[in-house]
Amino acid sequence: MVRRRARSAAHRPQAPRPVPRGDPRPPPESPYRGGVPPLDQALPLLHPLRHPQERGEPEINAFLSHLAVQERVSASTQNQALSALLFLYRQVIGREVGELGEVIRARKPKRLPVVMTRAEVKAVLANLSGNKWLMAALLYGAGLRLMECLRLRVQDIDFSQNEILVRDGKGAKDRVTLLPESLKAPLQEHLKRVQAVHERDLAERCQNHDDLHPCPQPRSVGRS
To answer: What angle do CA 44, 86, 73 make, to 5 degrees?
Structure first.
């Protein structure tokens, strides 16, 4: 089986390793707490009397749960162990791994978001202009995500109620957010410029139309 693993690994493309300069640094410590042995040594320890070909989904489930509960490894380390197991069974043993069942997953660390101060936001907006300034102001003032701002439609803006309807947001859900009062005038000016460009493009297209293909009428892009 060791020869099969070596032949399988030899045929897989690998990135070239950089040549060390000077004194090589000591090898990094094992990512597992308490020095958990490598995968090919850990599986026999959990089930010493059975060959990997005779083991399957229950043993993989037990090994991954062992890493999360006893060894308390990170989520990325557990995912790396799962990838190594899938490679072992698919590329070396030559069979697919079925449903693993309820695997105890390692907890992902909770990270606090990086929030900009008001002074930092003002400094960023002061260095922007035009449409980029308007987009950044909407992202900050209305709490929009980037793609929500890029997909924003005219009919989703209610100037009378100072509201913006966000469609198909995070989790494929719609929500209503606030339209800052300070952005109403710049946004309306932007819509007027867009409407002028739209009407000019339609006028240029109408020059090539005839009676059989009438020119489409321009639609208003503003909303009171």
So the answer is: 65
